[in-house]
Amino acid sequence: MKNKLIILTSVILIMTFLPDCFPQNKDSLQKGSFYSITLVSGKTVKGKVMSADSGYVLLKTKQGLNEIETHNILNSKKLGQEFYDEYFTENRKPVYRNCISLSIGYISPSEISDISYNYYDYSNVNLNNGISVSAAYSGFFSRTIGVRAGLTYSRMSNKDDYIMNYNYFGTGSSFRKGGRLSQFTIGMDMLTGMLQPEKKINAYGTAGFGLGVANCGVVSEVYGYGGEYDYNPDPQFLFSYGIGAGITYRFSEKTAFQTEAYYNHVSLQEGFYRDMDQFIIRAGIVFYKF
Fold first, then answer.
1. How many whole angstroms separate alpha carbon 208 and alpha carbon 93?
2. What phi and psi values does residue 92 have, to the nearest 5 degrees?
3. Whether 45 contacts 68, CB under 8 Å
4. CA geometry: angle at 195 spanning 194 and 196, to 5°?
5. Which residues have CB under 8 Å from 6's CB, separation 6+?
6. What's the pLDDT tens digit per position in 17-44?
7. Burial, 137: exposed, middle or buried (Cβ in 10 Å; 0-12, 13-18, 19+)?
8. Which is nearest to 205 in space by CA: 261, 176, 246?
9. What number of H helices and E strands is found in the chain?
10. N or C: which end of the chain has fewer CB atoms below 10 A?
11. How far apart are CA 56 and CA 65, in angstroms?
12. Cβ 194 vs Cβ 203: under 8 Å
């Protein structure tokens, strides 16, 4: 009798403290819990029970969904916290926190109403369309709000044209040739919209400002009486602000194609060039990190 009591007590203790060591009834599988299921064939599969009835068990494993017929189940064992942690580490959705983007684009400046330099006033001086190259780093606060900091270099040549000039020699016409406007800007933008890089397509809006330097280059003036003078303006400080919108299309896990349209207003110091609006269309590649 004493030996029977010792055996019974041992069995009760083992069942109390080590319940996972014993097979569980396949009919007791709980939806949302994690199990190790041993099949009649001897194969073992581990995962999360998505649904279970008398005929089938749907198990989500690291390899995907696995539908198991209940008559093929030999036994099952509920898994502990260690497997939970491993499962969610392997199956979590990627949360992208930042990215780097490189792009090149087309910049179209508005007409400049006039130029003032060294006591001379000139009218109808304009710029040709040019190129704009940028590199930026973006950080996401959430899946709808982010911030972007970047460097942009833009270059536009002057239009060669006859212009009217007004100065202390009187009124006359001259031919202007050469010259260009180069801009180097450090900018900051706020991003809002769909910032979910794991999705195929995202659309967003942006608004921001920039500080930088404009280099005007050498401009030659050929006057009607045959004289010629070269202007070499000093670099100018510039301030810009603007708004834009863009779309990204993901073509691999961590890279996407980006296209963006941006309207920019540029304010320059008093000098050879004046304030202007610029419209930029650019495209490039985004490299996501997380």
1. 30
2. -70, 150
3. yes
4. 100
5. none
6. 444 443 444 557 888 788 888 888 888 8
7. middle
8. 246
9. 2, 19
10. N
11. 13
12. yes
